[in-house]
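Mods, move this if it's the wrong board.
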Amino acid sequence: MTRRTDEQGAASIVLVLFTVALLTVAGVVIDSGYAMASKRTAMHQAEQAARVGADALNRGALRDGVTQVDPGRAQSKAQAYLASVGAAGTVTVDGGEVTVTVIGEHDTKILSAVGIGSIPYKASATGLSINEDTH
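Not the wrong board. Structure tokens:
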């Protein structure tokens, strides 16, 4: 049996393409898993920062028997917590609700080989002050 010369190296090309496809799928699975872990960490950070902010009560009003959030202190405390854990985000205060949104990007390990350098994530949480919990 004679081999046709125009098919020489065809198996090598198929093997290379299969390897690239397999590595891409592995990259999606692995880097997506790490990105989900980063988002879960961001969610925990947002939840804790919202709790810290919601606990920043107005001291003057508290002495008068009124429980209310001090918006300036709430933002300051929540941002300080985010800074202490190395997170970046926004804090909004609406009455007794403190909402924290943490944003970031997870740098990819494998997908960077195919041009995807990072995967963005965002997590939000709202904390209620003690005066909001009673309603």
